[in-house]
Amino acid sequence: MQCSYEGRIVGSSTNRNTTWLLHPHAVRAPPAARQIVYEFLLRYVVSNDTDAKVVKKYIDQQFVLKLLELFDSEDPRERDYLKTILHRIYGKFMVHRPFIRKAINNVFYRFIFETERHNGVAELLEILGSIINGFALPLKEEHKVRHRQSLAPSPRLADGT
Questions:
Q1: Virtual torsion, Cα 61, 123, 120, 118, nearest 10 deg
Q2: Per-residue pLDDT, 154
């Protein structure tokens, strides 16, 4: 059974096992409906009653990628909710941290080298700035290299070169 909830979140239900996937091509719901879903997801992620082992089955790499796709929204309130949700996922699920950093950098690569347009770049930079501030010193070489590669090309766009 397929059901549309919030317009961008589509679920499939089989034998009492419901999985929710973010679907970027689903019909958009009104902003109030999206706000309710984002608020529910945020409260679910930050709740102390949420069992991380159970949630790991649903908040996986595919979920994170779909969440990142939603950052290209025109609505700044939606991007702000997404920023908070992604940051809380990053903080709560350590296993996803390297993947989230890599996925955010891939969004920057696409923005810099392919599309030159993305509505959520500012929010993603805020998340990345917070992540970088949380790194222990001295920085690992892999962190230095990855951030040099993804952030160093940014000024070239501003210059038009």
A1: -110
A2: 54
